[in-house]
Amino acid sequence: MKRLAYLDALRGIAALMVVFTHLYAPIIGHVWVFDYLIDPGKLGVLWFFMISGVVIPYSLKPGPDGAQRFLISRFMRLYPAYWLSLLLFVVMLKLTDAPLPSLTQIVANVTMVQAALGFDDVVGLYWTLFIELVFYALCLALFIGGKLYDQTFRTRCSLLFLLMALAMAVVRAVSERKLPVALPLALSLMFFGSVWRQWLLAEHSKELTRNLKTLLIAFAVLLMPTLIMAYSKDMGTGETWGRYCFTYALAISSFLLLTRSVRLDHPALVWLGAVSYSLYLLHPSMLMLAEFLLKSSGASALTLAVVATLLTLGASHLSFRYIETPFIQLGKRLNNRKAKAQTISV
């Protein structure tokens, strides 16, 4: 599939918002806008989810080896840089004499499905990658079942996960159990992204337009009660339902705007989008590295954040060039080699 520069730019901005939340928001302290209105990190993550919806289903190509090609390409795209981030984070914990996770927890994190295995994430932001893997698995299942290219079926999937989120939110509110409402909400947005992509780039049929309107109305009606019930009580992560409501609404509306009417494609943003995966994964380790390098200098918190940002940009560039790109190319070679072998055998 042809790369869309404005999607790369959006990825870059999303990664920067996550970095801002982790590196700069603690310095700013309590500001009404960030405490009660906007969660920049959540906004960036929601953009990431919808971008995955735009991209991932259409990377599964029809053919007898479509599933295998998808698995190889996704493995090479995700795991090498992820393993690097895990290694660097553990090394930095050791270097700074911070408490180390158990060996069992580290090994579980190597799989990227530690949440399903009952283990905590070594790096807090890994939770989003598990959701990505669940979406990949669902797309693969729909592909095998012959339903992936049925936009009406994907519309129903989006609605189903939205209703599932609402049901989980009700149970969470009544029982005060911390159910993962974010998982079905994210999956709903991802399937919405896939429908939006088809309307945006392929066709404007009456059925597709009707399905898209149905989803937008469903979000408008169901998101607020879902978020109110799920996040009225803070269960330890600073969750505020009002901020979440505004952030989700802003994420969806701005995503529609920035992928249709206001398409950003500045080279700097496109480059940030290219390295956004490493940027996302490595900035917690680079913050610890900055603190380690400047621990005896008396540097201010802002100086630490700026140094960590520069280190993150440099490390992301190196990771993209020497880890991500070579393994992505390896995945392509493996897929092409298999395709050639099948052609020769035929």
What does the overall shape look like? globular
Summing up helix and strand content along with how strands pair, one would put the structural category as: mainly alpha
| Helical stretch tally | 14
Order of helices and strands: HHHHHHHHHHHHHH
- Biggest sheet statistics: none
Integer average pLDDT:
92
Query: Residue ranges: pLDDT <50 for 5 or more in a row?
Result: none
Beta-strand residue percentage: under 5%
Number of strands: 0
Distance between the termini: 26 Å
Helix content: over 70%
CA gyration radius, whole angstroms: 21 Å
Task: Write a short abstract of this structure.
The protein has 346 residues and is mostly helical. It contains 14 helices and no strands.
